[in-house]
Structure formats: structure tokens, C-alpha cells
Design a protein that fits this description.
This protein has 398 residues and is of the alpha/beta class. It has two domains: 310 residues, 3-Layer(aba) Sandwich (Alkaline Phosphatase, subunit A), CATH 3.40.720.10; 64 residues, no CATH class. The chain contains 14 helices and 14 strands. Strands 1, 2, 3, 4, 5, 6, 7, 8 and 9 form a nine-stranded mixed β-sheet that branches. It has a five-stranded antiparallel β-sheet with strand order 10-11-12-13-14. Strand 11 and strand 12 form a beta hairpin. Helix 7 packs parallel to helix 9. The chain starts with 8 loop residues before the first strand and ends in a 12-residue tail after the last helix.
């Protein structure tokens, strides 16, 4: 195992709803600047296309069937699952989170291990309580904008001393529907990209603030996207929209195609040599990696792997299946009655090229996707005809 870097300052940043292909555009100056000083994983994947489920995986190093949070406002984080914040808190780190949407409300148990958990949200214009709404789109209208997220992060950081060890989680939610970017910094012909640029601008401001205090080089910065977006035809691989085969996929949640599962992941620190890594990795790998770099003990039963050897220059981790799931389709049916035939789904990436999607618990109906020959995922074949097999343990027992 790679020796720990023993980092004492850790900034974990979530770009909610941000696809990898958009995050990695050259004019996303915050992400691009971070990647120029660290390792950018070009084939990282989320374990679920839903904010609370995906973040639970980041915080615990467990797949959804391990941390038990698999729906929206139905389950809380399994109390037996340790969290990254709790690990660092026990090791003496000061811990704080600035989150910006209902999907990270403390109701889920996400505040576990945080000394300060800021989940305050501005009220909806209608006066309704966002947490009581079943409509996920409108619930998402309650958000802290990126400028306020950064202001509150700076407020907490300004009280830290140079000798303090700290862990700060910062969450940007601007890229969620309705895609109405502020024009000052987010103007764009594509309003979704405008929203991402707006968040990216303020993330870059936060990095600049750390640099002014001579903290940036010695701060481990980890940036990830919790899931992407299907923009109903704005991108070639989109599957939703009027007249499509998948009208249920409005933004994210119901499908497991690359536009929602392929996400950005960057690790940056002065001790990490900059490069791109193409090996398949998952957001489930963040906790074991950060714990190792911080030199803190971590739970033994994790689903993620430690990527610190990769950050030290080794090749990517050994080939292993990556897993994702969504139980939102049937939740959507239960809440709205719409799309009564849609099914919960699972996905497995066998490697960079081979991907399998199946109705939940129905391996006999699995479909194989060759991402090299069919990058838009338009021409699946039955798994039995592909010559591929799912290895033991690729799918959970439940």
C-alpha cells in the first residue's frame, strides 16, 4: 500500500448533475485548472443517477445495497455504515459541509461526522416546503446558488488556523433543472452548460481564495460529479424528450446510460503528478483513497478500492466490475402513476468497452453494449449473444 501523504486539509467538491463530457470541456476553467495540477480520471462512474444515493456511496465507500439508501426520502443512511466525515472527525479533523439542495438534507443522515452541516435552503417562491414535495423537479428549485455556497464555505474556512486539520465538503447544485444560468458569468447558447460554467466560476474563486492564503498546494482537493444529465437531445447520446423512447428520463433518475453515469473525478495536491488515467473507476473509490492519503483508519468491508497507488504513478486498479443501479423508476410510478411499465435497472461495466444493463434482478433479460463500437448505446444485443458473461459477485444478492 502507498504510504499516506498525511494531508491535513481536504476539500471535497461535488458538481451535482454534471456530465463528464461537459465538466471536461476546456473552458471549464475551475475543473481544467484543477486537472492540470492533479490526476483526472477519464472513465469514472457513479453508482446511481440520484443525488442522495450517489452521495451516500461517496460518503461511505459502499454501493447502494451496502449503505441501504436507495430511494428519495424513503430510507436513511444505514447507521452501521461509517462515513468519511466520521473517520476524519475521529482523527482530529474539523469537519464541515455546505450543501445546496433537498437531496442532501440531514434527514438522510448525511450530517454524521460533521461538526457543522449547513443544509439551509432559501424558501420556494410558492411558500411550499421543498422537502414535502413529491415532484423531484420542483423540489430541486430550492437551492443555494454557487455564489452563496462559496461565501458560506469561505466564512467557515476564515475561522480556521494554519495549524488546523480540516475537511470541508462543498456541494454545487446549479446544473439541476430548470437551467437558467445567471448571465453575468454563466451566459451560454446552451443553458445547461451555462449553469455548469456558473458553478465552475465560483469554484475557481474558492480555489483562488485558498491560493491567496498559501493553502492550496497543501490541500487535497477532490472533485466529482454525482451523476450527469440527459438533456433531451442537446447531446448526441441523450435518450429522453418528446417523441423519444424514454420520455420518463427527464434529466436523470430512470436510466443508466453514459450521459448520467459517466462523471468527472479529479484528485489534486502538490504531491500528485498531473496526468490522465483511463482505467475504469467509481465514486465508490473516493472514501478509501482519501482515508489512505490522510493516514486515517478505514472500515475493512468497503466496496471501493484505494486509488492512492494510481495517484502515486502506478497503473490503474486491477480490472473489476463496476456497478450501478436505479430504483427510481418504480418510485416514479408509485408517486405519479406515469409510465406504468418502466422498470428498475442495474448496470455493470466489465471494462472500458463492455457494459451490461438489465431490469433489476433479471439477468436473463440483460443487454450488452459495446461502448467502443456503439458509444451512443443505441444497438444493444442480448447478453447471451454477446459472448460476455457477468462474473460472480458483479450483481448484489438482493
Amino acid at each position: 500500500m502507498t504510504a499516506p501523504m498525511n494531508v491535513k486539509r481536504i476539500l471535497l467538491v461535488s458538481y451535482d448533475c454534471v456530465r463528464a463530457d461537459v465538466a471536461y470541456l476546456s473552458d471549464m476553467a475551475g475543473v481544467a485548472g484543477l486537472a492540470s495540477r492533479g490526476v483526472r480520471f477519464t472513465f469514472a462512474h457513479a453508482s446511481a443517477p440520484l443525488t442522495p444515493v450517489s452521495h451516500a456511496t461517496v460518503f461511505t465507500g459502499l454501493q447502494p445495497y451496502g449503505h441501504k439508501l436507495r430511494h428519495l426520502f424513503r430510507e436513511r443512511l444505514d447507521p452501521r455504515a461509517d462515513t468519511l466525515a466520521a473517520l476524519l472527525q475521529r482523527a482530529g479533523f474539523l469537519t464541515a459541509a455546505i450543501v445546496s439542495c433537498p437531496g442532501l438534507n440531514r434527514w438522510y443522515g448525511f450530517d454524521r461526522g460533521f461538526d457543522h452541516y449547513d443544509d439551509w435552503l432559501p424558501p420556494l417562491a410558492s411558500g411550499e416546503d421543498a422537502l414535502s414535495l413529491k415532484d423531484v423537479k420542483y423540489r430541486g428549485l430550492a437551492l443555494k446558488r454557487a455564489n452563496l455556497v462559496v461565501a458560506r464555505a469561505q466564512e467557515w474556512l476564515s475561522r480556521r488556523r494554519t495549524e488546523d486539520s480540516w475537511f470541508l465538503f462543498v456541494h454545487f447544485f446549479d446544473a439541476h433543472w430548470p437551467y437558467e444560468p445567471p448571465t453575468v458569468h454563466g451566459a451560454s447558447a446552451n443553458p445547461y452548460e451555462g449553469e455548469v460554467r456558473y458553478a465552475d466560476h465560483h469554484f475557481q474563486r474558492l480555489l483562488g481564495w485558498l491560493r491567496e492564503r498559501n493553502w492550496l498546494d497543501d490541500t487535497l482537493v477532490v472533485l466529482f460529479g454525482d451523476h450527469g444529465e440527459d438533456l433531451a437531445g442537446w447531446y448526441p447520446n441523450d435518450k429522453s424528450g418528446a417523441g423519444s423512447d424514454h420520455p420518463e428520463e427527464e434529466g436523470h433518475g430512470c436510466l443508466l446510460f453514459q450521459q448520467t453515469q459517466h462523471v468527472p473525478l479529479v484528485f489534486s495536491h502538490s504531491a500528485i503528478a498531473p496526468r490522465d488515467v483511463d482505467a475504469p473507476v467509481g465514486l465508490v473509490d473516493i472514501l478509501p483513497t482519501v482515508a489512505t492519503l490522510a493516514g486515517v483508519p478505514r472500515p475493512r468491508s468497503l466496496h471501493g478500492v484505494d486509488l492512492s497507488p494510481v495517484l502515486a504513478g502506478d497503473a490503474g486498479p486491477s480490472a473489476r466490475p463496476l456497478y450501478a443501479e436505479t430504483l427510481y423508476p418504480r418510485e416514479l410510478v408509485e408517486n405519479t402513476g406515469a409510465f406504468p411499465t418502466i422498470e428498475n435497472l442495474q448496470a455493470v461495466w466489465l471494462d472500458r468497452r463492455r457494459k451490461v444493463i438489465l431490469p433489476f434482478g433479471a439477468p436473463g433479460r440483460a443487454r450488452a453494449y459495446d461502448l467502443a463500437d456503439d458509444p451512443l448505446e443505441l444497438h444493444p444485443v442480448p447478453l447471451a449473444e454477446s459472448g460476455w458473461t457477468l462474473p460472480p459477485g458483479a450483481l448484489p444478492a438482493d
